[in-house]
Amino acid sequence: MPQADLIIENARLLTMDPAYPRAEAIALAGQQIFAVGSRAEVAAAVGPGVRRLDAGGASVLPGFIDSHIHLFTGGAQLASLSVAGLSGFDAIAAAIRQRDAEQPGEGLLLVEQAAYAMFGAGEPIDRHLLDRILPGRPLALFASDHHTMWANTPALAAAGVLNGLATAPGSEVVMAPDGLASGELVEFEAFAPLTALTPTGGREMLGLLGREPAAAPTAAQRAVDRAILRQGLAYCASLGITGFHNMDGNLYQLELLGEIEAAGELTVRGRVPFRLLPGMGAAALDEAVERRRRWHSDLLTADFVKIFMDGVIESYTAHMLDDYCGRPGLRGSSFFEPAEFDAICVAADRLGFQIAVHAIGDAAVRRTLDGYEAARRANGPRDSRHRIEHIEILAPAELPRFAELGVLASMQPTHAPGGAYPIEPILSMIGRERMKLGYAWQTLRETGARLVFASDWPVAPLDPLLGIRTAVMRGPIHDGAPQERQSLDDAIAGFTRDGAYAAFAEDRQGVLKPGALADVVILSGDIEAARPEDIDTMKVAATICGGRLTYERGAA
Ligand SMILES: [Zn+2]
User: What whole-number distance in Å separates Cα of residue 40 and Cα of residue 20?
Assistant: First the structure.
């Protein structure tokens, strides 16, 4: 019998185990949970002499699982200037000039978390405007969703795109009437020449494209990149996260994480997908099979396929069934034709892969569900747990299909406008009628669909407690729309049990029960007693992953 080595007691355990939802104490033995129960039960199960930790009456939960993040870009951004929450020319210019003064140089000054309406709703953002902020140094601002970048003239010139760039459809170096680039760069292909100018050479972005570094990184570059990933992991652990599903991936990133694991420093369990792009064809999945074979530990797996179906609403690249309001003929497009996408789904499903597709517009969601349906028709029903990421706008006809097809709705509470983000320009672009099924968490849940929650960090803040707060504080998107508010239990499940289910790991993660992995978060207070608006003012007191203390508040 394994010997318990830690008891956490005087705790309010929310086990997320429906058979035994609450407890007072938990004992850990090595990498596993040994006992859960009342204080007396756990004490009797382990005997005397075991180290005890008093939770002070605070909530103890399964370690948080963030089912949609971008660890490498997030880690890289921890050192960048963020203009989150800033708006107006003067405020943004002041922040950028201050950073330029603090960290002077000739290199690209990269700014993160810029809002599409940062200079005012409908105010065009072009290189001339940015030249007024910083005329003499390359400057680029990333939209918080990483689907658009804006650059000044020196940055466009340094990247070699001032005179334009031929890109694949869906990406665009937007040109101005004067025949030169306007400064707006839409989607990856267009801004890749800019990210190549950063200290990492943009290597953290390559996984979004499913590409490998053009030249093999040097040992020094690999060390820089591993350090960035470790910083990202430490940040996850500081917020109570013990598991993440990465939503970009390439071989390089897997190798780096594998090296971190081999060094005993992988402090959060990670899943990394194979990125499948239009035109690759099903033969590309051979590589996915190979990666799945190489990485399959409890800490690191490469067991799913990630696909982008469309872009985002803000840049009119989300694929809609009908025109955007006030833009006749404009409804975005999908990156895959139905036949190609169906064939990919059939092939990936046959190989036993879970598929995760970014689909934001109602047309993209429909096409994705059609592909999953084609896979089921061809291969027969199986426990595939295919998922759709974001699902911002949904046509009524799609509502029952999630439950019918067993498709997971992967939603990001902080993405819903009206919460962390302003309601405009989204509401005006989509219109009130279609917005009734915008970010329709509860409406989907009530159809029997399974949901899973995530942050999409660094697109939105990583803190799961902020995600939970946003989910339980949600109101109708406008006064004629459904409520969509989440219960506290559903919100917590979205960041614990449901994330484990999405990883086929619900028997050993996302739950506090004997035999499960010892992934535990101890909060600073009682999450059930907190007012909803105060949930994210709570802190993480300690994070334990696989029985190992990965974060302790106040510790060096
Ligand atoms: Zn994402």
Answer: 16
